[in-house]
Amino acid sequence: MSRGAGLCIAFDTALILFPMLRTIITTIYPKFDFLALDENIWFHRQTAYALLFFVVVHVTGFYVNYYRIEELKIRPETAYEMLYKSWAGITGWIMCLVMFLMYTTSNKEIRVMNFETFKYTHFLYWVFFIGISSEDDGPDLALLCHAAGCFVSTKSINSYNPAIANIEDEGRKKCLGYNSWRYVLVGLLLYIVSLLWGMYRSFRKTDVTTVIVHPERIPTLS
To answer: Residue 23 pLDDT more than 60?
Structure first.
């Protein structure tokens, strides 16, 4: 359950970026208006709620896992050490802290009172994206990768159940990640393309035809 939720977290991490591709959405909306692309903010929120749900499942699952590992003496570490002193535990709690800051500052009252707090706190998503990126084998994409500690590996699984161990792989340690970097990479590439495209369009000459001031004193230019 914890690893399944972890894979859902990786997928949602990429999916949550799609509604934020404003330049791409604005460009394709006239041709694909049947897709309800104007509901992108709503979809972004729903993905965030799903991400939070799977994080809770993931963390709860590993709490149970660590307790069972200590009880069965599969590893020499205690549950406390695996939760708060291991690489997976430390990076995991850093990512949870980032989520806490981003979710709390997304509250409507905070956005209205101090939009800059909401805006700059959301830049912490880079920490979360780097943390969720991991590979099945070979070096991790970055030092902050959550799976860099290789807590779940073929060696640890084989030691728990020697019946499934392969003789040729005996003694070798292969990390069992989620290949989550593949999902994150797709989302990030589209986000970067949308950002660069928007920057390019910002240099074009713009003619302002109307200015509408809403009751909240927010001007709209067209």
So the answer is: yes
Q: For 71, which DSSP code?
A: H
Dmax over CA atoms of the chain, in Å, equals 75
Provide the domain count of the chain.
Answer: 1
Question: 186: alpha, beta or left, given left = phi > 0 and alpha = psi -120 to 50?
Answer: alpha
C-alpha span between 11 and 109 (Å, rounded): 29
Residue whose tokens read 């713009």: 206
The answer, yes or no, to whether residue 142 has pLDDT greater than 50, is no
- With a pLDDT cut of 70, the percent of the chain lying above it is 73
Higher pLDDT, 34 or 70: 70
The half-sphere exposure of 22 on its side-chain side, counting CA atoms within 13 A, is 6
Q: Is the pTM of this model over 0.85?
A: no
Q: Is 91 exposed, middle or buried (0-12, 13-18, 19+ CB in 10 A)?
A: buried
Residue 138 three-state SS: coil
φ/ψ bin of 194: left (φ > 0), alpha (ψ from -120 to 50), beta (otherwise): alpha
Predicted confidence band at 49 (pLDDT cuts at 50, 70, 90)?
very high
The DSSP annotation for 9-61 comes to: HHHHHHHTTGGG-HHHHHHHTTT-GGG-GGGHHHHHHHHHHHHHHHHHHHHHH
Instruction: Provide the 8-state DSSP code for 205.
Output: -
In 3D, which of 182, 178, 125, 172 has the Cα closest to residue 147? 178
Range of the domain at 108: 2-221
